[in-house]
Amino acid sequence: MKLDGIQLDLNDLVYEPREDTFMFIDTLKDEPIGSILEIGSGSGAIILSLAAHSPGQFYVATDLNYLAALQTQQNSIKNGLSINCVATSYAFPFRYKGLPETIVFNPPYLPSDPPTDKFLTPEDRLALIGGDKGYESLIKAIDLLSFKTLYSMVSSLAVGISKFKQMLKERGINVIILDEKKFSFETLWLVKLVKINVI
Ligand SMILES: C[S@@+](CC[C@H](N)C(=O)[O-])C[C@H]1O[C@@H](n2cnc3c(N)ncnc32)[C@H](O)[C@@H]1O
Prior knowledge:
alpha/beta, binds S-adenosylmethionine
């Protein structure tokens, strides 16, 4: 697949870039982003497109799906881009001091639906299902990780945007909507989360 000038090899067991991925790629180009940590990099589409636009920065990618971390690494080598890839959950092996303070996380954001979930592969469940409500994986990242800015995705199938804003306000975080896409069954919001009182 060719995406934004990047040649991406794909794998059936790794999330294939789709509408949500494209929202990140299109929107983050216009954001003042330096070094980044991407959680859940999948094929590497987002972090590779950022690295291609600003090659001099420090890029770290993690994915709990080992094949996805490997795919990001192989795609970075294929495109001559320098990305540090690790197969892990969130950013567990790292000391947070020294990591990029801007995080990108296109999380699994759908609510669990046990009758249909059981037909998904473990890799698809990891990529798609964010928890019973759908937003748990993102909230865990927010509570766990140290960041100034976190770019992420919210689906109306998990939570309404007003409720999400209220939940994050209680955590001292402002939610800025950067992009919105409406489908017949779902609305997706690309959000920028900024810690209040962090300069
Ligand atoms: C919706 S996919 C996004 C993939 C890619 N960033 C994209 O936009 O095309 C979510 C990704 O997060 C990964 N993931 C899920 N839980 C994770 C965790 N706790 N730590 C790291 N990666 C995780 C999945 O394996 C999957 O690759």
